[in-house]
Amino acid sequence: MPFVTEAARHVIAAGGKRFRPLLVILASALGTPRSAEDLTRAALVMELTHVASLYHDDVMDEADMRRGAPSANSVWDNSVAILVGDYLFARASDIVADLGVDFVRLQARTFSRLVQGQIAETLGPAEDQDAVGAYLAVVADKTGSLIASSAMFGGMVAGLPADQIEALAGFGEELGVVFQLSDDIIDITSESTGKTPGTDLREGVATLPTLMLADYDDAESRDLLRLVEGDLTDDATLAETLRRLREHEVIEKARAEVARRAEVARAHLAVLPEGMAREALSELCDTVVTRSV
Ligand code: FPP
Ligand code: MG
Ligand code: MG
To answer: Transmembrane region positions (predicted)?
Structure first.
C-alpha cells in the first residue's frame, strides 16, 4: 500500500547514524562473512527493528521530532505511528527468516527485552528498588539488547566460534549502555540532536544526570532536583531547568561515568582476533563517549 510505504520510509529517509548496521558489518569483519547478501540482511534487520522501535517510542514519549524531522506521530497520528512500527518489525522478521533459526531466535529474544525495558521504564522502580540500578537495568534492556544483538549478528554471519560471539555479546551490551547514557546526557546538553532537547525531563523519565543529582546535598542541587522532579510541561520552566542542569557539575560526573563504562566495553574485545576490525570496534568506544548527536 503506497501510504504504508511512504510512512515507513519517513524516519528512515530522515537520516540517523546507522550505528547498529555499522556494528554488524564491523563485527563480521573479524572473520569472513558467509555472503554479501546475508551480511546485508543482518544489517538491515537490526536497523529496521531499531526504526520500528523509534516509531513506537515517539508515541510513548510524545516526541515531536526524530532525526531532525517531524516524528511520524506528529506528521500523521499515534495510530499510524504504532501500525507503521508494527509493519517495519514485520518486514524485519521476514528478512531474518532467510538467515536461519538462530538469528530468528535471537531477534525474538531481543524484541522481548526491548519491550520489557520499555515497560520497566514506564512503571518506574519498585519501592524497594535502587533507582540507579533500576535505571541501568532499563538501559540494558531497551538499548543494550539490540546493540549486543547487532554485534552478535555480525559474528554469526561470519561463523565466529561461540566464545567470540559471547565476547561480542558482552561488548555490544556494554557499548549499548554507554550509547544510551551518552544519549541521556545529550538530551540535556545539546540543541542539535535532531530531537527536542529535554524530552526525557519533560516526560519525567529518570536519566543518569538527574539520578546522580540526588547524591548532592547543597541547597542549589536540592532546589534543582525539586525542579527536575516537578511539572516540566511548561516550556519556560523546562528551559530554565535545562539551563541550570547544564551548568551543574553533575554533567561532568555523568560524563566521567560514561568514559569509565566505555573501558569496561573495550575490555571485552581482548579475546577477539587482533587486526583492523578489532581496532575499529575499539574506536567505536571512543566515538560513543565523545558523540554529541
Ligand atoms: C529509545 O529510548 C527507545 C528504545 C531504545 C527502545 C524502544 C522499544 C520499544 C518501543 C519496544 C517496541 C519495539 C519494537 C521493535 C516495535 P529513548 O526514548 O530514551 O531515546 P530517544 O532519545 O532516542 O527518544
Ligand atoms: Mg524517546
Ligand atoms: Mg523513550
So the answer is: none
